[in-house]
Amino acid sequence: MRETIVRPRNEWDGALSAPPTQAEVRLQSIIILVVSVVSILGAGWIMLSFWLFPNLRSFRHRLILGLAMSDLIMAINFLCSTALNISGRLISAPENATFCSYNGFMTQVFVIQTDYWVLTIAVCTYFILAGHKRQSTWIQNHEYLIWSLPWFFSTLWALIGLVRDAYRDIGAWCWFKSDRTRLLVNFVPRWVIIVTMFVLYAYLYVVLYRAHNEMSSVVDEVSPRQRWSGHTTPARSVDTSFQDDSFRGERQARSSATLPRLRKIARLMLLYPLAYAVIWSLPTAIRIYNSTTDAAAPFALQTIDKASIVVQGLVDAVIYGLNETSWSSWRARLSPHGYPTLATTNADDANDANGANESRAREREQRSRRPVCGRRREIAESTGSGPSTVVEPQDAIELRDFTTEPHRKAIRE
């Protein structure tokens, strides 16, 4: 029978210091391992959705893919350290000092990298939906540079900690041993990012709300009973610079169906930063408490604190997956009826449907004369169906520029 060992606690630096007994370390590691597996599943779901569905390969979804990759690697890193603790080879042991340094480096890279990813997604979404043509065109033409920013800054912070030999065992994994360091390096910038997201998404909420009002005034010009077909229906282009990516979009003939989508998207905008604020409230409160009192938090709070960090992959899957196109795509794929087809509510709608089909055919013929470029070419080649046959489910929620150019001018005025 393994003996419970009282481990000497280093000079107190914060609530994330390792629990004092091996039994508590083992229990905490088991809980964190389970949460890590859940987080891996969440991140994997986003990545699998990106791979399966061409309509989830837009510019914004490619940024979400970067976030999911960071979540996945971070969760695997936690899985490795907790597995060592559970096996009895504690990461605090002298023979595991090299592993602890590596584990702490990886933790710092990807914990803060997820913050940079959500900020990047928020800023890019703002530029495109708020009608900043020059900025939105630039970021979409420099996608590789945008991708490199979260990796560069997060790796830079982690290398500084590695050079200063600052990574030590804190229980389920290794990280900065000083709670004050974690507070200043991670939590203060994180809340700056959350506040920035609130400001950006609040402004976009106003933009979409005004767009909703503008579109509701002309909704009677489109048949309210028209539904989705298996082919996308190009509509008027908002901006010629947005014609070659999903953000610019193959915009559907949504008519009145667009209005509730705008309202739903506007609400989702504010839920993103709110969800992160709720998740990080307890860890931040514990950091402040321990930095000011030098007292240890109860074991239960320590464990919840760490679980809040590890669960990031699941949270991002819910925020950026369940509430957007991927959830609808999965439902459509698993449905015995497949993707929705064009249907009308009664026989009186047949003429409207035929007219809509003829209009779509003419628009597809006109678009086929234009060269297919950029990401749309990649999707067309991967599906073998051409750019006009990318399928979207009936209730897919995608953050696109739903406002027409006159609407955006009215909004800016």
The CATH topology turns out to be Rhopdopsin 7-helix transmembrane proteins
Task: Give the helix level as a range of percent.
Answer: 55-70%
Rg over CA atoms: 25 Å
Biggest sheet record: 2 strands, antiparallel
Average pLDDT across residues?
73
Number of strands: 2
CATH superfamily: Rhodopsin 7-helix transmembrane proteins
| Broad CATH class | Mainly Alpha
Count of discrete structural domains: 1
Q: Structural class per helix/strand content?
A: mainly alpha
Overall geometry comes to: globular
Strand composition percent: under 5%
Helices and strands, in order, run as: HHHHHEEHHHHHHHH
Low-confidence stretches: 1-15, 225-257, 340-353, 371-413
Terminal Cα separation, in Å? 75 Å
Total DSSP helices? 13
Q: Can you name the CATH architecture?
A: Up-down Bundle
Membrane topology: Multi-pass membrane protein
Region (Disordered): 229-249, 341-413
Protein name: Cyclic AMP receptor-like protein A
InterPro entries: GCR1-cAMP_receptor, Glucose_rcpt_Git3-like_N, GPCR_2-like_7TM, GPCR_Rhodpsn_7TM, GPR1/2/3_C
Write the layout of secondary structure elements.
Blueprint: H1 22-52, H2 59-87, H3 97-129, H4 133-141, H5 143-163, E1 167-169, E2 174-176, H6 179-216, H7 258-293, H8 299-310, H9 312-322, H10 325-334, H11 350-368, H12 374-383, H13 405-412
Antiparallel strand pairs: 1-2
Describe what you observe in this structure.
This protein is mainly alpha-helical. The protein has one domain (22-334): Rhopdopsin 7-helix transmembrane proteins (Up-down Bundle), CATH 1.20.1070.10. It has helices at 22-52, 59-87, 97-129, 133-141, 143-163, 179-216, 258-293, 299-310, 312-322, 325-334, 350-368, 374-383, 405-412; strands at 167-169, 174-176. The relative contact order is 0.15. Residues 42-320 form the G-protein coupled receptors family 1 profile domain. InterPro entries: GCR1-cAMP_receptor, Glucose_rcpt_Git3-like_N, GPCR_2-like_7TM, GPCR_Rhodpsn_7TM, GPR1/2/3_C. This is Cyclic AMP receptor-like protein A.
